[in-house]
Write a structure and sequence with these properties.
Helix content: over 70%
Order of helices and strands: HHHHEHEHHHHHHHHH
Radius of gyration: 39 Å
Number of helices: 14
Distance between the termini: 98 Å
Structural class: mainly alpha
Number of strands: 2
Low-confidence stretches: 145-179, 181-188, 210-215
Oligomer: single chain
Mean pLDDT: 74
Strand order of the largest sheet: 1-2
Shape: extended
Length: 464
């Protein structure tokens, strides 16, 4: 019996691979599928730890630049990394301590003003529910998934009552039209504003309970912060050690390319984090100033919320708009509209001028890919998935972008080579045609000069 690598002894021609899968191929494929499946299950079960390590790597790469700078002044890398991390924590803690009284006071004001804001929103919805397109949108939002109200039925008149003696009908009941036996009695329909308010309150309570349960059950807050701090110190002090361990899992022939990919990933993540931190400060300050100029209540608390949510691209700025617009409804719907326009203007400037200027093409993620990645990560991993969706997507797109750039450069080189070949071929053809033409003209000119010059242009011999 011949194997795939043997040849037929009669013909001497290799038999070639047999069509279809053999038993060994099926077994190897099954092992690969099971390994991938169990790996994904393991990754999902420890996703909180994986995301924590990813965030530590993200912050550690930013700390590395400061550690490199301190190393020039003879500061050991471990000491320099710890100094930078604790100095950053001190600055953040000091800023929070200085602004804590104002934030607490305005946070309480937000809490007390929210019911009034929702009431104003409710009145505005009721006033607009019969107005053209706005009324149709409000009706669709209100009816969405709202369950039907309970229906009260009138018992059949022929069924004798055994629990109570019959009573006389009231005047109001006798004046109204009689209801047939067994037919549902009309129930007052809830106003669209009531349904929208119920949905809004349910969504806010569900989101808060989900976030609190996530923080309390998945990762203990104190333990997670301590682990994050020490991981940032270790990674910021010796990034080359961990990079070398990662490269050790790559074949030697691919390590130069792997080193290049890891270096590009480090640059992209470091640039993204520094950009987001600067954008958080800018948007927090800008939101506070705009809310103060517009006379919106609790401007410092709204600015703090906007700056904090700026860390989550695309989704965070939209979420930060909700409390600002609701606080605008406390005064009037017109002010709420002005606040919404102001928020949109700040986000437009930030997304189209500030972020592109700071990133300068280092991480050009299309908005559609960003939104899809955030939605998918949120559905699968929850809040932590939403936080790390954008930088993780950037990490995955770095090697793809490098491959695309290499292929584009290869294609451009092929096109340049084809153009050079075409030019050389055209030049050779022109040179050949010119040579043939010159040879023909030279032969004609020799023929015109007579037979004495035909014999290799040798002059006649002279006698002595």
């Amino acid at each position: 019996m011949l194997t795939n690598s043997e040849s037929d002894p009669l013909s001497g021609v290799p038999s070639g691979p047999r069509p279809g899968w053999q038993t060994g191929d099926v077994a190897r494929a099954a092992c690969v599928v099971l390994a991938v499946w169990f790996g994904l299950q393991l990754l999902y079960s420890v996703s909180a730890l994986v995301f924590l390590v990813f965030l530590a790597t993200l912050f550690g790469l930013a700390v590395t630049r400061g550690v490199d700078f301190l190393e020039k002044y003879k500061v050991r890398r471990g000491v320099g990394s710890a100094l930078i991390v604790f100095a950053a924590l001190g600055v953040i803690g000091g800023g929070l301590a200085l602004s804590a009284p104002t934030l607490i006071e305005q946070g309480k004001e937000l809490q007390t003003q929210f019911p009034a804001a929702i009431g104003k929103l409710q009145d505005w919805v009721d006033s607009k529910q019969r107005t053209g397109a706005i009324g149709a949108i409000i009706g669709a939002v209100a009816q969405g998934d709202t369950p039907a109200p309970p229906v009260a039925t009138v018992p059949n008149a022929t069924t004798p009552s055994t629990t109570a003696a019959p009573t006389k009908p009231s005047a109001a009941a006798s004046a109204s039209s009689p209801q047939p036996a067994g037919v549902a009695a009309p129930v007052a329909k809830a106003r669209p504003s009531e349904m929208i308010k119920a949905k809004l309150m349910d969504g806010m309570s569900g989101a808060s309970s989900y976030l609190l349960s996530l923080l309390s059950s998945t990762v203990e807050i104190v333990g997670g912060l301590i682990m994050l701090i020490f991981l940032v110190i270790f990674i910021g002090a010796e990034p080359d050690v961990y990079r070398g361990w990662m490269l050790a899992t790559v074949p030697a022939i691919l390590r130069p390319k792997g080193r290049e990919v890891l270096s590009e990933i480090s640059n992209v993540l470091r640039k993204w984090l520094l950009t987001q931190l600067l954008a958080m400060v800018v948007m927090g300050v800008a939101t506070t100033l705009v809310c103060m100029l517009l006379g919106v209540k609790a401007p410092f608390a709204l600015g703090f919320i906007a700056g904090l949510l700026e860390f989550i691209p695309t989704v965070g700025p939209l979420l930060s708009m909700v409390p600002g617009v609701l606080m605008g409804f406390v005064d009037s719907p017109e002010k709420a509209g002005i606040v919404a326009v102001a928020y949109y203007g700040m986000q437009f400037v930030e997304g189209n001028l500030l972020i592109p200027y700071l990133m300068r093409g280092e991480m050009d993620l299309p908005p559609a890919i960003t939104l899809v990645a955030q939605t998918l990560m949120t559905l699968v991993f929850g809040f932590f998935g939403l936080v790390v969706a954008v930088p993780l997507t950037a990490v995955l797109l770095v090697p793809l972008r490098m491959i695309a750039e290499r292929e584009n450069a290869h294609e451009e080189e092929l096109m340049r080579f084809a153009r050079r070949t075409s030019v050389m071929r055209t030049s050779m053809m022109r040179t050949s045609m010119m040579s043939i033409r010159e040879t023909a003209e030279h032969a004609v000119s020799r023929a015109d000069r007579g037979p004495s010059l035909m014999d290799d242009d040798v002059p006649p011999a002279t006698g002595s």
